[in-house]
TrEMBL record, chains A, B, C, D:
It comes from Nonomuraea longicatena. Residues 1-122 form the Gfo/Idh/MocA-like oxidoreductase N-terminal domain. Residues 132-261 form the GFO/IDH/MocA-like oxidoreductase domain. It holds the Pfam family GFO_IDH_MocA. This is Gfo/Idh/MocA family oxidoreductase. Keywords: Oxidoreductase. InterPro entries: Gfo/Idh/MocA-like_OxRdtase_N, Gfo/Idh/MocA_oxidrdct_glycsds, GFO_IDH_MocA-like_dom, NAD(P)-bd_dom_sf.
Length: 355, 355, 355, 355
């Protein structure tokens, strides 16, 4: 694994616990973690259960006992590490957004297409059981032709103008702001659940607080966009870090000719489904026949944020073991990147999304 | 009153009951109702409590004992009746949208500006106690600088492709579809609560079902638009009649630097408020110090849809009696009309809203 | 009508508006209202739309043009007025609880049984569309054998120890406290929805604040009781005026072998239903085929507290016009009274409810 | 650890992950797991991360490298194992209910009082951050004098009469049914949050389905009871496995003179709090200053069922390391057992709870 911060912790938990819940043909061994600070990396290795640690990610590629590279760094280093790892014959799991630019993402997708190893981009919210159930319902046609997708990702951690200039607020490191960080998630979630791709968008972005302790904010605070999807659906999106009181509200509502569904990550064990114009049913997605849920606890005993990563690792390992292509692929990540770029360039004008 | 259908019934209830709850310096007498069908109008008069009935709206203008004309007809006749009524010295209450075109709305606003009578456009949702409380909180600065308005009006009554071509689906009568019918409400509500006007929008509209029993649908089924507001807020709007399972979900969320609020008309007695980034509080807007609520029932004994009209009539009569200008004015209605026009013409391009 | 306070206002609204929404074979005329204070009664008559007023309820009985007597006074006068009105050949609608004692209630039920006029006790919550729908679902067997009823009526208007000694806190006037005032409602609601009678209860009551400005509190602040029902269900009840933050939370949950339902009056337009162990569906009880709802507004346009009374008057008038027995009868009111008495006397011991 | 089924899995997860999130002065080593079936125990050890396995719990007591014994067996073996483990100088964590009878529980509490090792009963719901926050609010006086506790634990896994006779439906193994299994949790939770003990109860129990595939049901399906608490609060409880559609709804509402709170485990990351009679605020209990939450993820990234056990192990290890007494103690477990016995014997009569 490369990176040991927020995502590093989440991924480590997943690697460490996946076999306690899922029967898998392979069992991961947590060989080595890589970070820039030697001490912090050593401490992270001890705490999170990694056998070794290093400060040079190239070490991982050189080791024969490392077959998988899990990239949990900021977006600016994704392309370099991923392309090299794939070239070294490794399987690669890469945090989202896939890259900071379309150009980088395209290189990564190209590398993935011709590599021997498997590759996957870590849109972990696909692995929320409720989101997976949503996808299953739409794919089974239970909602009929999809008319609307309404997706929001609302946070509030930079509302305070005195909040400092962390790396996520710098374009050179993060690529974009709310748009790439959380907007990427709702683009992927909306496309994944509906099975439709965005074909065009018009959007607006805004930086409400332009100067913070530490310097100039060079990314967006909020991004709003609407668009058309490949199957005829209308889509609306809003990603913001200025929704006071909303902590991690990834929400998506889908309206189809035969029914609708609604999800909010702040109540992650619930999926709301309406059929035939009737009321919305609150489904606790903890039943044995619900996606992933059967591997965990009895009905009504919910999962937490962490477990989206465990489910994700399960799917990645399953794909590697069975020789199938994991999803979402780097190509999927590139497609999201193209939408992000279109929104960034839109400034209120309609942009078609090239394939 | 002109018109006796859905809006006619709602307004009649309000005229009939307003003095049972509010102490007013004037008491309305329900003189005469006008409709096209003589029998239906006579029956409506009897059922709703109107002393007389007629099939010619000009009769109302000729009568000295009629001081107020309440226009509850489809949008295509608003301008003619309203301008004539104002010219005849009457006070005019007109259903929304103010007109079917900006040109008509502009004529009405002009007439209103120079008339002796008072005029008001019937955006009744302003008179939901929870919406009025929302406005009060923002105006008092309790939410700080407003960053986001997120408004939706979701219905589902035309999801079935066999639903026939009623007048609301015909451009010649209704002007537009979801956009003018329910989109107008959320534009007004968003502007009213925030105290900011939309200064530019980019939008998309769609007609999902183009042919229905009875003929060609000539209005939009859904309209999505995003925009910028005069005070720096970002706004997103979605009006649709294709949100299966959503019956009358007028929703608005406002995020400010100091707090947020949320309202959904399907739970019309509730306003959700967050302060300082904390959780959202579900306020039952039925306390004596809440707008309008003190005139009604004890705490926890909620109001219904009908009562938004009673509250509206109360405010209109109060303005007439005290010689103040009722709000929203025809000028406010015109401003909404300009937004509607901009959305209709946008097709994904950014349109500035002229004052 | 006798009484012009809270209930008098609510009933008056119902009498005044019932024919604007319901097609009835008879139309009520609001002849005369009776109260103790001449001025207040005159003012109430004017405001609420009564043609005449008096301070002696016997006047109503003497008038040939009064066929219905609606009793909205405190419980201590119910028996005298109702028995006399029935003896005078009037139809009688009486506020709940039917009386302050079982003895009074038994006399009233006896009088009703042999009277020519129709009689009904005003458990208005039966006329909430959602409650009526709940009853319909259980009666149709959709929930299977009923196992549990869980009913609460939570208010908070006397939490403040400085709240004064109003009539509802005096045993001589009100009979009992939370128990008879709001406990009576949940007993009736639970029995009505399930179609089962309570056959035994064990209960506890408490007066948290025993002295208030104005004197000694002589009724209970809260009553808790559990019991067994005639069809084998287990029932639990809690009525309190000390549930801070709960304004008028009449709640009932019913669990059956095939499904469950849940209702809370603070969201009175919603009924939550679960079938076959699945999630709970939030039904907006505003569809044309829902009880009462078809007479009112389009789907999603909810009713308010007031309209439970309109629906009640509709049923009462319908019964009178068609010569059927309105429900709940005085006998039903007596049965509730027997439960109240059993709870009052229980002090933690099990009491069987005599028929 | 003794036992490897449902609770064994949950506790194992906690032992394995606690140091990845909490900084503790001691780090647990997972030495040996004990079960009756050699193969199943071996498999459980491998899957859950235990170094060794055995079929005789006495082996654990004989090992010097085992300092803690975690008892996850059915209630009938708790007393024997716990008393022996304490006599052997081990620290003991024991699943709830503490025992199947008051006599057993009393012996355990006595053993704990005089033992060198620490002991704790595993009422894991105390370690839900929202429940811990509730306790903190009440202890700080923010709700004022507590008037009401209203606790329910609703499940539905035996609604189907064809569900077989598992061990939890047999009195010889489980002691009691819903009462001891889930009723014990709400008794502990109610007493813990309020800081008041139950001083008397009156209750009713019922077995709705008496014969099942596999034999006679010898425990209750449901238990309802109400009571008085040491601080003057009134309490109501309902534990049932027949609440169709409710999966794991441990709910508690507390009403105090200054405010109220509400919790439902089916939405375990939320605590609803009302202050001064105002609306209820939905607090997402994921902020850094919330109990336990700071050790986990950023705000809005919720925990799952599993993590209540991790938090519990953290507290147990902290107590052992610092030489303080963990809570809830075996004496607390005995007190709950006395309430269970009183409810079982009540049959509608009031029973005082002896200390």
């Amino acid at each position: 694994m490369v990176g040991y911060a927020f995502m590093g912790r989440a991924h480590s938990q997943a690697w460490r616990n996946v076999t306690a819940f899922f029967d898998l043909p392979v069992a991961p061994a947590m060989r080595v973690i890589c970070g820039r600070s030697p001490e912090a990396t050593r401490a992270a290795a001890a705490r999170m259960g990694w056998a070794g640690h290093t400060t040079d990610w190239r070490d991982l590629l050189a080791r024969d006992d490392v077959q998988i590279v899990d990239i949990c760094t900021p977006g600016d280093s994704h392309a370099e590490i991923a392309v090299a790892a794939l070239a070294a014959g490794k399987h690669v799991l890469c945090e989202k957004p896939l890259a900071n630019t379309v150009e980088e993402a395209a290189r990564m997708a190209e590398a993935a297409a011709s590599a021997a190893g498997k590759s996957m981009v870590a849109f972990n919210y696909r692995r929320v059981p409720a989101v997976a159930l949503a996808r299953r319902l739409v794919a089974a046609g239970e909602l009929g032709a999809i008319r609307h997708v309404r997706a929001q990702y609302l946070q509030d951690w930079v509302v305070d103008p005195d909040f400092p200039l962390v790396w996520r607020l710098r374009k050179d490191l993060a690529g974009s702001g709310a748009l790439g960080d959380i907007g990427a998630h709702i683009i992927d979630t909306a496309q994944h659940i509906t099975g439709q791709d965005l074909v065009g968008v018009t959007g607006l972005t805004e930086t409400f607080v332009k100067d913070r302790p530490g310097g100039r904010v060079t990314v967006d605070d909020a991004a709003l966009f609407i668009g058309r999807m490949s199957g005829g659906a209308m889509a609306s999106f809003e990603a913001t870090r200025f929704a006071s009181g909303r902590k991690n509200a990834l929400r998506v509502e889908v309206n189809g000719a035969l029914g609708s569904l609604y999800f909010d990550f702040e109540a992650m064990n619930e999926l709301w489904v309406s059929k035939g114009g009737g009321g919305f049913t609150r489904i606790l997605v903890t039943e044995p026949d619900h996606p992933y849920a059967g591997a965990w606890w009895p009905p009504g005993h919910g999962l937490g944020y962490e477990h989206t990563f465990t489910n994700q690792i399960r799917d990645f390992l399953e794909a590697i073991a069975t020789g199938t292509d994991p999803s979402p692929s780097f190509a999927d990540g590139l497609r999201v990147q193209r939408v992000l770029e279109a929104v960034e360039q839109s400034d209120g004008a309609y942009k078609e999304i090239t394939r």
